[in-house]
Structures are given as C-alpha cells and as structure tokens.
Design goal:
Largest sheet: 7 strands, parallel
Low-confidence stretches: none
Helix content: 40-55%
Strand order of the largest sheet: 3-2-1-4-5-6-7
Radius of gyration: 18 Å
Number of helices: 9
Order of helices and strands: EHEHEHEHHEHEHEHH
C-alpha cells in the first residue's frame, strides 16, 4: 500500500475477541494501528503479532476505561502518534450477571459505567478531535440488546441502548464536518464473554462479525446489524406489544 494512502486506525478495547479479529483484517489491508486495552501483556502481544504477521506499524497503550480522567490523555497520545486518525473502532465492554445487578446497585452501576458512560466519555473526546480534523469514521460496537428492555439482561441492554441513542445524536452533529458515525449492532457472538451460554444457530463467530465491521466502515451505512438477519429479528421484537412482551421469558 502507498504510505501516503495508509489508513490510520485507533482501536479501543483491542484485545476483545471481535476487535482482535477486526485488527487482523485491518492490518492485512495495510492499516497503521494504535491499540488500546486494559491488560498490558495482552495488548503488547496483540501489537507484536500484528506487526510480525502483517508487516504493519502498530502501537499500543494501556487504559482502564473506568479511569475517565485519562481518556483525554489516551486520545491525545493516539492522535499525536498516528498524526491523523482515519478510523476509530470502540469495542470495549462487559456482559454482567443480570441477577448480580438486580441484587446490587453498585454492580449495576459499574456495568453501566463500563458499557455506557466510558463509551460516551471517549466518544466526546474523539468527536472533538475528528470534527476539528474534518474527516474520519467512528464505528462503535453497541448491541441488539439495546433495542428493548428484556428481563434477562436489561442492565446491559439499557447501557447499550444509551450508547445507540448517543450515537444517533453524534452522527447528526458530525455529519456536516465530514465525520461518519457507524453503529454496529451484533447479535449473539461466540466469545469468551459469552462462554457460559449455550450456543445455537443464531450465534456468529467473532471472525464473521469482524468481516462485517470492516465492510461497514467502507459503506454509507449508519446502523449495521451483524449478522444481517438480526435487523429483521429486532423488527419483530420492537413491534411486539408491551402487554405481551412483558410476559415472555426473554
């Protein structure tokens, strides 16, 4: 790839299964990468593997996303290192135990902070930088869980719903500046985070979702369901009357 045409990409939550697979696809395409994750050993290992396997330049930094005071610092370091940021993937999060969240407000609020507040904080810093830059794409992994409150995961779902709604407004704000905002809504994905769940035909691999993300950031789409059939499943879910939905064991 022509060095002048190299896409410079920032990935936050880079050691998650989906982000890791996406990073490999982007590195294979020749992207220069800046990886951010909580575990220093894991993010260093991913960085070194990408450089060796794909022959690209990769950088890394360590961040606990709950340390909100460091968000501006990390974003600044990434922009300073890359010079220009063409693509951002925000991919961090956790899947809490719903029963534990019901039993403890502290547990519920921590999960909401990881899955929503930290994302909003980082996006605010990123949006200001990209708006001033005048171009770029932000792709954020939300979830189909954010489309309706379900008894089985409404704490996680409410956080993802908040992120999706925030992204709608951010997309409108940044449109005139030439910055794209893409909401990625995966369905069930077979990752270490979902290891305790029984898998079925609706489950997708991280590789399949990563391929969808790479495709999505090059196309003029605002919201992308991965795999594609979740768009129609969630249409049925959204249209189900509340009087019936609250009786369902979902």
């Amino acid at each position: 790839m022509n060095p002048e045409a190299t896409r410079r990409t920032l990935i936050i939550g880079a050691t998650s299964a989906i982000a890791h697979e996406t990073a490999h696809l982007l590195a294979e395409a020749g992207d220069e990468l800046f990886l951010v994750a909580r575990d220093p050993e894991k993010v260093t290992a991913v960085r070194d593997d990408l450089e060796i396997r794909h022959g690209v330049r990769a950088h890394s930094a360590v961040l606990d996303v709950l340390d909100l005071k460091r968000h501006e610092e990390i974003v600044s370091v990434a922009f300073r290192t890359l010079g220009v940021v063409d693509l951002v993937l925000v991919a961090h999060g956790d899947l809490p135990d719903q029963r534990a969240c019901e039993a403890s407000a502290e547990v519920a609020l921590r999960s909401f902070s990881v899955n929503a507040l930290s994302v909003i904080s980082l996006l605010t810093e990123l949006a200001n930088r990209l708006e001033a830059q005048g171009h770029g794409t932000v792709a954020v992994i939300s979830s189909v869980a954010g489309e309706r409150g379900r008894r089985s995961n409404y704490v996680y779902g409410s956080a993802k719903g908040a992120v999706s709604l925030f992204l709608q407004g951010l997309r409108s704000r940044l449109h005139a500046s030439g910055v794209r905002v893409v909401t990625i809504k995966p369905g069930f994905v077979d990752t270490p985070m979902t290891a305790r769940f029984k898998k079925g035909f609706l489950w997708a691999s991280p590789e399949r979702v990563a391929t969808g993300i790479v495709r999505a950031v090059t196309r003029p789409r605002d919201v992308v369901y991965l795999p594609w059939f979740w768009r129609w499943i969630m249409l049925v879910v959204r249209l189900t009357p509340e009087t019936l939905f609250k009786r369902l064991s979902v």
